[in-house]
Amino acid sequence: MRIIVLGAGVIGVSSAYYLASQGHKVTVLEKNNEPGSGCSFANGSQLSYSHTKTWAEDLFFSKFVKTVLHPTSFASIKKFDKKTLNWLVKFTKNSSPKKALINSQNLYSIAVYSKDLMKVFLDKESQHNSSWSNGRNFNYKKNGILHFYRSKKAYERDILNIQYNLLSGNRPIVYSANQCIEHEANLVKLLDKKQLAGGILYPEDASADSYLFTKNLAKLCEEKYGVEFVYNVEVKNLLNNYQKITGINTQDKVYIADAYVYALGALSNKMLSGINVNTDVLPVKGYSLSINCNEEYIAPTSCLTDVEKRIVYSRIGNVFRVGGVAEFASTDIHKNSYSKPIKFLKNNLLSTFSNFGDIDSCKHWSGFRPLRPNSIPLICNSKKYPNLYLNTGHGSLGWTLSLASGKILSDLINNHTSPAFDFLNNELN
Predict the structure, then answer these.
(1) For the segment 362-408, what is each residue's pLDDT rounded down to a tens digit?
(2) What Å distances lie between residue 288 and 229, 270, 297, CA to CA?
(3) C-alpha to C-alpha distance for 67 and 74, rounded to whole angstroms
(4) Left if phi > 0, otherwise alpha if psi is -120 to 50, otherwise beta: which for 173?
């Protein structure tokens, strides 16, 4: 079957990998000049397989409501139009403990599958190319993620809530404040200020450079499976005859295939609304700092999450990555919008660690997470157009869920779906 994948981010390239490995002739269309240059480029780098709480879970939701009113907080709403308000109503409906738990468990099932697929992938591809061995070519580190807490209340709350992880087969480890220091010595500044209550280590989690993974995976797809990547393509619209998609109209030509996979980010949603397909995706802008660090600096080597500040820290080779902030309904791509969120990240970085790297020359980046009200991605066909398949809406978990999303999508196209993911069938209205 001839298949066109729209988007060469980590979701699109993962989809292309599994489709091509199962014998399909795949072409990937990408607006930028290389793969992984959108939301995959400089995100928080965490593979958070064990911690998949929805954004609408009650702790985040209550904090979100309080903090959007404060300009220095981690969350804000940039546009209060009708679409945003409708989305927020649905978001609110998904914040009940019962719904949040069901959605979190469903996300967890995709994440665990993705973790298992990562092992299978590395074992398989490293036999043919040693650069994939242990994930060397994308700085893969499976040392777990330590979630640390500043307040005793939040710490004790999450200790009680890890019961569902235990029931799911996950084995988080509760750390005292001193044990957090043993795990990551650079947290001592918080301990000295009496701002470290404790932590929870998720040992099955990992960190890695999603941009390098996507770039190397695209190269593998080309060389091993004959996938064609076409860059600098501006997709104008999806052509259809009201029963199926008949082509992809671009600035140069019309691309025609038997099936089409939509794996584009949050800012491309108008393309689907033009054919009356509603994904309920809202762009949530996030930011990151990439700080060069070498032997002169004692930057954290562990992967960390500051639970109350909603900031993640990852060491990727000689780069210390800091990621966070959630600007709901933001579509501003200009760098002059960076000042407040970058200041928020830098201030928290400076108050949390010492001697971590050359912050004055750090690189700033922003990306748009495609978030749905219940945090569950769309991995399905559109029903209205049976040959159009969607793989989008992963929010902040795109990197974490990428391999599972590609495999589930490929299995769907090949009619080999697993009952474990039946909940995905009802996600598209």
Answers:
(1) 999 999 999 999 999 999 999 899 999 999 999 999 999 999 999 99
(2) 28, 26, 20
(3) 7
(4) beta
| Closest listed residue to residue 393, CA positions, set 406, 407, 379, 403 | 379
Beta-bridged to residue 47, according to DSSP, are: 206
Q: Which amino acid is at 308?
A: E
Residue carrying the six token digits 């911690």: 51
Tell me the average pLDDT across 229-253: 96
What DSSP state is assigned to residue 362?
P
Contact 269, 331 (CB under 8 A): no
pLDDT at 22 exceeding the cut of 90: yes
Please name each of the domains of the chain with its CATH number. 2-42+211-278+375-426 (3.50.50.60), 49-97+140-206+282-371 (3.30.9.10)
Q: What is d(CA 375, CA 392) in angstroms, rounded to the nearest whole number?
A: 11
Range from 50-59, 101-110, 121-130, 305-314 carrying the lowest mean pLDDT: 50-59
Angle, vertex CA 391, rays to CA 258 and CA 410, nearest 5: 55
CA distances from 168 to 49, 50, 100, 104, 247 (A): 12, 10, 16, 11, 43
By the 10 Å C-beta count (0-12 exposed, 13-18 middle, 19+ buried), 200 is classed as: buried
| pLDDT, tens only, 262-304 | 999 887 788 998 999 999 999 999 999 999 887 656 788 899 9
Which pTM value belongs to this model?
Answer: 0.95
Q: Is the pLDDT of residue 322 over 80?
A: yes
Q: Where are the alpha helices (DSSP H) in 246-292?
A: 270-273
Angle between the N-to-C axes of helices 210-225 and 398-413, in degrees from 0 to 180, rounded to the nearest 10: 30
Task: Please say whether the beta carbons of 399 and 314 come within 8 A.
Answer: no
The contacts of residue 211 (CB under 8 Å, 6+ apart) are: 36, 37, 40, 41, 42
Q: Which residue has the tokens 């099932």?
A: 109
